[in-house]
Amino acid sequence: MRLLLLACLRAQTGNATTAARIQQHLHAAGHICVLKDAFMYESPTEIGNLTSTGKFDAALAIHLYKGGRLLQGSRIPFGIIFGGTDVNEDTKCEEKRRVMGEVLGEARFAVAFTMKMKELAAAEWPDARNKIYVQTQGIKTTATETFDWYRFLQNADIPTDTGSLHMFLLICGLRRIKDPLYLVDVFSDWHRKDPRVYLGIIGPAVDPLYTSEVKEKIKRAPGVYLLQEMPQGDLHAAMKRCFAVVNSSISEGMSAAILEAMDLGVPVLARNIPGNAAIINHTETGLLFSNPQEFVVLSKSLMNDPIMEREMVTRAKDYVKKHHSWESERKTYQNLVLMLQ
């Protein structure tokens, strides 16, 4: 089949990573899958023209509102993959909720990353329950062998002579829902008392206005750095060298960065929200914090307890292997698209 996959394709964002992975899965089954950025289109009419001229047999969209609304009234069959903010946030807006319900009504199937997300969607749109499948994100990490950690630190102006450097890495698109500023003040205070600890924030400038706010704040925050974006292989290599990966989002579907850190054997500290709590068992496979002060307390306990750290990352790696298999994700999508024939 010739398939169209609509998603927000901004580099280094979760949706773009998921879209590229699904594209690989479908190519492996012999389909042609063309990725298109949902932000490039305004209306279902434009997508209708695209599917006609591009001779597409079927379509997929990631995010029930951002991608899905463009497939409303589509002349070709389509399936939907929930993004996270669609079910968690966009349902609060009556107009978006109405549009998403209509899209879901037309879709042949929908995919939720967690059972919790399926239940939330089914509570909003009960008629769609039987067409929602649960498939966790499949994870495969590839750290660049030749990555130069010290050059990376030097480029960021982080002193490399501070003895035992403890680098915390927060990986997210710079937008309010990801709340990259949540820990900045408390981390700066901690850095003043313990100059070995650093927080690096890395990710694309999704919201230009908010990005300038982030830059301004970080300028005045010792110990906190905004780092250059880098290719995924380098990012995975940097994650392996850092002390812990951090997530401070207000809302998450399923954070690929958290799962990648677990797969790479790196401790995870994440804000205690439903999307994060769905994949982290507190003190077993990672640490969940409910406020900035608790983040510091938990980070210190992790720094002072190498045995706990070692056991936690071992369990986390096992968890990803068991529940986030790239192979089973591949099988699911290859089977689901057969429903679009």
Number of strands: 12
| Shape label | elongated
Quickly give the structural class.
alpha/beta
**Which oligomerization state do the chains in this entry correspond to?**
single chain
Strand content: 15-25%
Q: How would you state the average pLDDT, rounded?
A: 93
C-alpha termini separation = 8 Å
Percentage of residues in helical conformation: 40-55%
Features:
43% helix; 6-stranded parallel β-sheet; 341 residues; alpha/beta; 14 helices
Descriptive report:
There is one protein chain. With 341 residues, this protein is of the alpha/beta class. It is built from 14 helices and 12 strands. α10 (256-264) crosses α13 (306-323). The protein starts with a strand and ends in a 5-residue tail after the last helix. It has a 6-stranded parallel beta sheet with strand order 2-1-3-4-5-6. The model has no long low-confidence stretch (mean pLDDT 93). Helices cover 43% and strands 16% of the residues. It has helices at residues 14-28, 44-53, 85-88, 94-106, 115-124, 149-155, 184-193, 208-219, 232-241, 256-264, 274-277, 292-303, 306-323, 326-336, and strands spanning 2-7, 32-37, 58-62, 78-81, 109-112, 132-134, 166-171, 197-202, 224-227, 244-247, 268-271, 287-289. The radius of gyration is 21 Å and the shape is elongated.
